[in-house]
């Protein structure tokens, strides 16, 4: 799991660095600083939201798929923002592509394994219990 956290941090750095390079071309340093603080705040909020939505507080086994998903979202955001920028990058782009594909494959395999190990528990039921707590007695479970 530590590897996925580190990959998420690296992909976050790539994404924010690419945005900063673009912003420095068009905006003053103070405006760029405000944008950096804003994007970092949004990044922290979305990461926290994904970890909470995945149910990592109730089930620590869900930490790894959550971090893999976060890494995939960050590398996708990085490559979407790189389409229109003319900044030349070093050799790390092929490495980042390889790591992104490895993240996606490992996330898919883990999700299939978690789904098969849950023994018929639906994702909707898990999300409902995370958001609303356990169902009251006498109510039908979905």
Automatic annotation (TrEMBL):
Record-level GO cellular component terms: endoplasmic reticulum membrane
Matching InterPro entries: N-glycosylation_EOS1 (IPR021100)
Origin: domain of life: Eukaryota
Assigned keywords, A-Z: Membrane, Transmembrane, Transmembrane helix
Name the UniProt record assigns to this protein: Uncharacterized protein
Pfam families recorded: EOS1
Membrane-spanning parts: 7-27, 33-55, 62-80, 92-112
Keyword Transmembrane helix (UniProt): yes
PANTHER family recorded: N-GLYCOSYLATION PROTEIN EOS1
GO biological process: cellular response to oxidative stress; protein N-linked glycosylation
Annotated source species: Terfezia boudieri ATCC MYA-4762
